[in-house]
Amino acid sequence: MTVVQRGQSFQATVYYSKIKPGRWRRQFPTEIEAKRWELDSTEALQAGRLPDMGEGSNTLGHSFRPTTVGDLMEYKCRHHWGNMKGGKSACANARHMAKILGPETPLGKVDKIAIDLAVEELRKQGYPESTINKKLSTVRFAFDEAVKDGWLAKAPSVPFFKQGEGRMKVFTPAEERAQLDWCRATGDMELEDYIVTSYDLGWRQAEALTCKPRNLETDTYVVTLWGQTTDVDNGTKAGNTRRIPPTPRVRAILERRAEGRGPNAPIFDMDQDELQRRWGRMRTALGFALDPEWVPHAMRHTFCSRLVNDHNVNVAVVQKLAGHLRIETTLKYVHVDERAMEKAIAALAGQRNSVYSPTPQSNPAAPHATVASHITQVADTIDQETAANGMELQGKAA
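RE: above sequence
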């Protein structure tokens, strides 16, 4: 700690190696003010807080250092989340957390108690654990980055709450018919088209509402959803490109909706807000206004579940069609019903040998065509090796 006179002012310097950058300096008109700041800054650093560098340091210039929760969240919105997919949602969550924690709260004052009180407030506002985790993740990330940048000595402990299985709704064929019947009765052909394509393509809302004729192959009407964001494409959520072959009824819809439109004009005229309004009217009319699971996104869950339950499609194929990067995500979308489990047990019971033997493959030239056949072959190999080793040991014993 030093205070040195520099011309007509006094420069105070404090050192603390545990926090970057490790040295802080500030000019004062009198020696007494410099020494007081020196003592206060040392105490703050030892308590895990940054020194008060005055209002002049809190600018967007080279020396900018966020000192409050509001400053930190806005900084991350401008320089991190703003350039990412889903950045709008992340910034909304970050600003909401800044409002709860207090936008003028100094970073060093956000401790475990402050986080616990914020969680309590989120629960009072009715947010589920999954949403609370998303909001808290912005706090965790922003404060961890503040520590890395030397703006804070130690980040607060931010919990992660165990989540349930998430959305469980899978629409039944009867519910699908009721939806389509309502659309026809009210003359809402656009919503009807959206519903049919969602059930048969399993695409996300944003992917459907931004689909353009340029995304459709001319002859087959296979839908290509481009992963990267460009001037004419929003890109997929996961950033991966995928192609989805249409069912006959979807192909007819795509042909009709693409006709007469330019290559970059969306095939649907409604946006997400309009979709929610129309869906809400239908849901209320059908008596499901109070069911939180009765939402458009449930059609994507229905798409994945039907492929597995009704058509015995390999989960890896479902993953590709849904555009998930991780198969664990697909498993959350696939809700295996009792019919599928009964079929599985019936297939097992159908083996009449006393020792279980797998169903012969129809294409022996491609033994690893499915995961199931691959697992079976591995199991058979292990059994054969075990038997061979047993014979060898018996021979040695003899």
